[in-house]
Amino acid sequence: MLPGRFLKALAVVVVMIAAAPLCYILLRAVQAPAAAWFGVWNSQLPRLFAGSVRYAAATMGIAALLGFGLAWLVERTDLPGQRTWRWLLAMPLAMPAYVSALCYILLLRRGGITERAYMAVTGAPLGVLPAADIYSLGGAALVTALCVYPYVFLPVSAALRGGSRTLEEAARMLGCGGAGAFVRVTLPLVAPMLLGGTLLVGMYALSDFGTVSMLRYRTFTVAIYNQFAGQVDRSAAAVLSLVLIALTAPLLAGESLLARRGRRLSVGAVDHEPAPIPLGRGRAPATAMVAFVAAAALGVPTTVLAGLSISGWLAPTQVDQIWSVGSDATWRHGLNSVLLAAAAATMATAAALAPALLATRAPGRITTLLLAIGRSSNVLPGMLIGLALILLFNRMLPLLYGTWAALAIGLALRLLPQSMTTNEGALRAASPLLEQAACALGARRLQIFQRITLPVARRGIMAGWLLAFVAAMKELPLAVLLRPPGFDTLPVRIWAAASESVYTQAAPAALLLLACTAIPLVLLTADGDRSSIHNQHNRHNRPHATLENPATHAATTPTQMAHRRRTRS
Amino acid sequence: MKHIALSLATAAVVLFSTTACASAPARSTLVVYTSRSESLFKPVVDAFHKTHPEIEVTLLSGTNGQLAARLLEEASNPQADVLVNSDLLIMADLASKGAFQPNASPVVASVPAVYRAADGAWTALTLRMRVLMYNTDLVKPEEVPQSVFELTDPKWKNQVGSADSTNGALMANLVVMRKFFGEEKTAAFVRGLVANGVKFFGGHTEVRKAVGAGELKLGWVNHYYYYLSKAEGAPVGIVFPDQDSPGLIVNSTNAGIITGAKHVQAAQTFINFLLSSEGQRIFAEANFEYPIVAGVPIAAGVQPLDAFKRADISLRSMYDELAPVRAMAQQAGLP
Global pTM? Predict the structure, then answer.
């Protein structure tokens, strides 16, 4: 089915809208008076640059190590409980990094839960126990990495599970040792996923706002927010934004390149399960290590949140009572969050259909250019999209400004690049041959789309929608900037309560948020298991099904989509 | 399954309409932007709602600067009815840009002239002063600094908490210091703070919590943060610094009706309530502030304002010094 004129026009419109915030920020920065550039350059830039780069690099390093190590242990060795680890270790995707940061602050800071417990047990006075400095580069990078390592873990596991095994066996049959096969075959095959995932982690780190601001680590996003929050003149914020965009752009470019190559490489069905590598004596320590990571990423934060919620509920202080005026408040914010995220995910998924159809059905230079423009807004952290939209809406759509719809549109714009990618993957599952057959039989375009394309791509589109929903649920800075009066979301409440140090009130909101993000992810993982089994089954029966597009399978499993997905706090 | 596009669209429409129903403010809703922390402001709003059940109040919280920027950004498309902020400089600055409309309320007119606009466009609600607080478990009373300049002493390295440059109270404090001590000395002081590892927070609540918990030894805050921590049973003490010169720096919380507000009548009622003895009493009792209205008693245990030497300066005419001071402070490394 060749896309009609209408579809092409639609795709162009969607892409233009997606690129609007980026264009606007660039324009503002270029128009900023020289004094603003000079002032920012002199006073803040070198420090911020160093701070942001260090934080991104450290987070990438830790996440790469964790993601790769865990993936190898789970997929390749005789680690017990492989199936459980597979989904449990992906679950930190549900944990917003700022929530995790909050929990570790409460636990480790001077006078925090740990020190209080130590004082209660030993009778030591305050300040004796050496405190772990959580408010540091190391603290910020570790906490963030514990939440985002699945960006590396998921694609690397998929690759390790997939075709590389056969090649590895071939290498071993040809006389390579285990280590040799690992270095010469496995590593090069997995490298694109490892690198691609790590670059996603880097982009996440550069765009993160909640975690670093809670851990008092200065990066560009925090400085931009401070510029914005502290003064009326926006030029300095625009200048800082431009530098941040310039910093993020190479990561996005590299990631897109790798994703394209990775899709070509991660091919191949597994015909049989090769024997796992025995860990021998290392089995118990390895299991303990994996369990430790899972506990640090999920168990500890959840326990702290549950404890705080219960204490705020059983022994409320005066502040607790003021905050929870009408204790249905948390539910209302939860409802706001869910409705908003659902609206945004729906808009993004629907809008991304047109460019994705174009990408799969009419590839070419113009399409590539269009998609690149559409994805370019990926370099914009939520904070910058929010900033641009405040200014754009006020000037061009004053009626929308200050409504929940403006916030939903902002979120949808934020999700659009991600939805374009997931939709593209999903649409590749629908064979053009079938569409052509339908066309030959006289079906109209819309009919073909409804009766052939959509039914086949449905599962992938729904999976993409769920991922977009989870990302929208977690989004903090956009909501902080664009929320209308009286329309707070869970992340906004968590952030507000935390910045007023009313942790007992942040905890229930955080728990509810976790529930809302974990459920879709569990659904996705369950679906992923079923569909990959299903697809493998098909592969054996109908070997020709993969002929048209060998990349199809790899790009449409939810695991692959999770790799493509980008969420930030 | 066939009509997935259609069902997506329907879902969107349904969601939008439910969201709209769930959250669209009713017509009689007064929209108040406030930089006051929620736990301090909510009790006042609840009391107002009790006396005026016909007026719903919707709050939007943010920092002084953020809300000021938002108000100016929205000037052609006003969303808020009232601003309640906590920095006189920003209030005067906004007023000079026409952000507020005149308010002829006699209640406002009874506020001392230095603490309101001549046409009533804005009025102070309460006063607060800048102090130091310390953790009594970690610092002996005799070691406590008597001047803010001592905060740059290496003795307190990594042990001091302060608000950052987004905080109106801190910026106003620096404006006053610059007036008294000059650009050079003030900039050197800020550089000294940064070099001394002072922890800068987005707000003072975090500072007082950190001092109360013993995470930090000293905090540079507004006076009521000490009393709030004290009331929670935290081991904290207070110092009224720089009594020889320049004296205590006093700032105010303020309210004004936004130009183009949709509910002017309700806004007036609200501000009158904030200035009523009931409203003033809540600020004084629950938050240990100094009422602007004469005759409303301060909370028990709070030292009266007249007991101290106050810096002889009027903030309201100094609003155009905010921008150069911020530039100076950021240049000096203040986050």
Answer: 0.81
A303/A320 same-domain check: no
List of domains in chain B: 27-127+250-306 (3.40.190.10), 128-249+311-331 (3.40.190.10)
Peptide bond into B246 cis (omega under 30): yes
> Domains in chain A: how many in total?
2
Residue A311 in this model has a pLDDT that exceeds 70? yes
CB B288 within 8 Å of CB B227: yes
Residue B166 has its nearest CB partner, among A226, A390, A402, at A226
Shortest Cα distance from B5 to chain A (angstroms)? 7
Using CA atoms, how far apart are residues B153 and B157, in angstroms rounded to an integer? 7
Which residues of chain B are within 8 Å of residue A419 when distances are taken between CB atoms? none
A461/A368 same-domain check: yes
pLDDT at site B264: 94
pLDDT at B157: 94
Task: Check: CB of residue A163 under 8 Å from CB of residue A270.
Answer: yes
d(CA A554, CA B236): 61
Domain final position from A296, A314, A332? A314
Cα–Cα distance between B202 and B192 in angstroms, integer?
Answer: 20
C-alpha A66 chain-centroid distance: 17
Window 491-510 of A, Cβ < 8 Å to B:
496, 499-502
Domain that holds residue A130: 58-217+282-314
ipTM of the complex: 0.75
In-domain check, residue A256:
no
CB contact under 8 A, B25 and A486: yes
